[in-house]
Amino acid sequence: MSTPWRQHPQLKGRFHPEHPDDVQAVVHDGGPRLTDRRPELVWVRVVGQAADVFTAEVLNAPAQLATVHQGDRVQLVVPAAGHPVQVSPAWLAERAAWTIHACGGCGLDTLLDAPSALIAATFPALPPGAEPEMFTTFCGLCGGVMGVEKAAPPKKWWQFWR
């Protein structure tokens, strides 16, 4: 069985020495705007990879989470600082449209919730289809502040000649 994640630069050196596919990761029920449950650090076994997204099986039971259980499969990304972090399919679908500015407290540069979920929770009176260009949110790990802004759309090939 091929295990390319063992050599992936974002995971290399993080694996348990006796269990070469096992790594500690942050799992959660969502960030502080959507849940009062705290994220937890658990052991997971990486079982797949697509670019910079890793699929892993949760090896130990989280103590107080309602949506993550031992044996579940989760998707992970590796932030610039800290442990790999669980992400949702909605977060993955939306991430290219947003720039996440790292938390001023712990340096986390990954949201625990999809931007659309944060916008709905933060701006409930926003008209349907409206979206802020920029907003702040609380870090899901330390409670610090993170900035979230719309990413600049990619330029068309002809725009480079102007």
Keyword list:
162 residues, three-stranded antiparallel β-sheet, five-stranded antiparallel β-sheet, mainly beta, 2 helices
Short note summarizing the structure:
The chain has 162 residues and is mainly beta. Helices cover 9% and strands 28% of the residues. It is built from 2 helices and 8 strands, in the order βββββαβαββ.
Describe this structure in words.
The chain has 162 residues and is mainly beta. It has helices at 89-94, 115-122, and strands at 22-27, 40-50, 53-58, 73-77, 85-87, 98-101, 134-138, 145-150. It has one domain.
Report the β-strand fraction as a percent range.
Answer: 25-35%
- Secondary structure category: mainly beta
**Tally the helices: what do you get?**
2
Multimer state: single chain
Secondary-structure element pattern, one letter each: EEEEEHEHEE
Largest beta sheet: strand ordering: 1-2-3-4-5
List the SSEs and their pairings.
Layout: E1 22-27, E2 40-50, E3 53-58, E4 73-77, E5 85-87, H1 89-94, E6 98-101, H2 115-122, E7 134-138, E8 145-150
Antiparallel strand pairs: 1-2, 2-3, 3-4, 4-5, 6-8, 7-8
